[in-house]
Amino acid sequence: MGVILSLAAALGVFYLYTAFAHRWPGLGFGPPATRPRARRPSRHRDWLAQAGLAEVAVSEFGTTVAALVVVGALLGFLLFGGLVPALVIGAFGGSIPIAASRHRRAARRERAQEAWPRMIEEIRILTSSVGRSIPQALFEVGRNGPEELRPAFAAANREWLLSTDFPRTLDVLKAQLADPTADATCETLLIAHELGGSDLDHRLEALAQDRRLDTHDRKDARAKQAGARFARRFVLIVPLGMAFAGMSVGNGRAAYQTPLGQATVVAALVMVVACWVWAGFVMRLPDEERVFHQGIAAPAEARAASREAPR
Q: Are 238 and 191 contained in the same domain?
């Protein structure tokens, strides 16, 4: 029995070590013989790509969030002198990179939504009137497109020059942009490139018109929400200012350290965060779902896979 328990313990240590150190899946005694070349992009990776952080791995972003949670908890403990408020402030501090990425993602998507109708129209003109091939028109429009989209088109152009594989080139572009309009445009161009036909002009014209209507409706909705969004930010600042002001009056910091003060601070922080999240959920505009987004891995995932590959 002792020998069996020793072997089981050794086998368990081996599996734990190889799983965390070498990322070996399964119950085998070595890495798998082959790795899948194409994996379905996760929602988190799409989210980072839409925020312009395609080169950042999900694990790296999570490490940054965890570090800010620790820093925020330490500052909260020094400020209020209690463990529970420190944990609440630490959680709020960890949400800062998430909120910043959400804001950057929203700004980038808004600029992309405004640019795509014009870009689709330019592709239509170049392929129909000027006589450019579909890949040439796509890369020419991408080079002159918004600055946020140019790196994705440059990466796709490099893939095209190396492989002349148009489906894989479009996979690179879709993985970098992670945008529903880009997915629909790429699939339209891919079908026209592989099957040919004379209806590409009409399809691109209809797609551009649909994108214009969608962009107009979203801009109108954001304009109507402008006042509510300003009030949401203002309400977040006021409680924090009152908390700092209370510390400078009399024995404010000592009052925060009492059990009643700790409970009041926690309740106030929870209500502020809950109202902030609820207001953002109510005012959130619906996002379009990606449909044609299976393809090659994102840059961060590709780097991780290359590091994990056995030498």
A: no
Please tell me whether residues 264 and 172 are part of one structural domain.
no
Token pair for 82: 């209690």
Q: How many CB atoms lie within 10 A of CB 307?
A: 8
- Residue 296 backbone phi and psi in degrees, to 5: -75, 165
Buried b (16+ CB within 10 A) or exposed e, 278-298: ebeeeeeeeeeebebbebbbb
Claim to verify: residue 62 and residue 101 sit in the same structural domain: yes
In tens, the pLDDT along 29-83 reads 666 555 444 444 566 676 676 666 666 777 777 888 888 888 888 887 777 667 7
203: domain range?
113-222
Length of the chain: 311
Q: How far apart are CA 241 and CA 244, in angstroms?
A: 5
pLDDT tens per residue, range 270-305: 887 788 778 877 777 776 776 665 544 444 444 444
124 sits in which H/E element: helix 83-125
Instruction: Give a yes or no: residue 147 inside a domain.
Output: yes
CB-side neighbour CA atoms (13 Å) of 244: 5
- Classify each residue of 200-225 as buried b or exposed e, where b means 16 or more C-beta atoms within 10 Å of its C-beta: beebbeebbeebbebbeebeeeeeee
* Three-state SS at 225: coil
Name the maximum alpha-carbon separation found in the chain: 82
**Residue closest to 30 by CA, chosen among 309, 305, 301:** 309
- Residues 120, 147 share a domain: yes
Residue 202 has pLDDT above 50, yes or no: yes
pTM score, whole prediction: 0.56
